[in-house]
Specification:
Length: 261
Amino acid sequence: MQPNDLIAPGDVWLVGAGPGDPDLLTRKAERLIRAADIIFYDALVGPGILDLIPDHVERISVGKRSGRHSKDQQTIDQLLVAASQAGKRVVRLKGGDPAMFARTAEEIAALRGVGANIGICPGITAASAAAASAGLSLSLRGVARRVQFVTAHSQGGKAIDLDWEALADPACTLAVYMGRDAASELSRALILAGLPGATPALITCDASMPQEKNLRTRLDLLPLVMKAFAENRPTLILIGEVVAQADLTACAEATTHKASV
């Protein structure tokens, strides 16, 4: 199959770029990138993946990061629609997986509204990459039979609207996306809902990238440790007993003593 056989003029593919490492990109995603006429890409798409874009392909950054939005969602929707109606082969490159906290539904609705042909190419999500780097399984027989994925990003500085009692399940692994700035609220609310303060937690910054950092700590120390560790980097938090299985050769560990120094 030739690359252009995957995508016809006017088609739009929402493509998962994975956590950042180009080696974790799917083969289909790479073929779509090479077949596109124009690519709209997120801020969290790794530089090694952007290097795969051929020189003749138009590239437009539509990245959104906490507090720094280069394009609002409505503008992104309009750009995708315009490119499709102009007969271009369009790839919308999203960090991680398009189905995971990626505003994909809004883009699909806008494109369906004009009759555009849409495809979705999944990608590896950051929680999977963080677990792999730390040498742990998100689920574990007898410890965690369930995994919950949440985003801690709030709208307009409002309190995070989550079912804390459901999340504070000691037999579950909780993966928190965009949780860096909400560490204090996460810790406080989960402990109030019944999750022990000693519950293991893993902070992963820049998952899968050469500059990746991992730190194992406890739920009650999460706010203090986060301030010193994550800085302004893309951060994912894993909370639950499976974190105790993390490979400490791949992770630093913050104890009460270390965190208070």
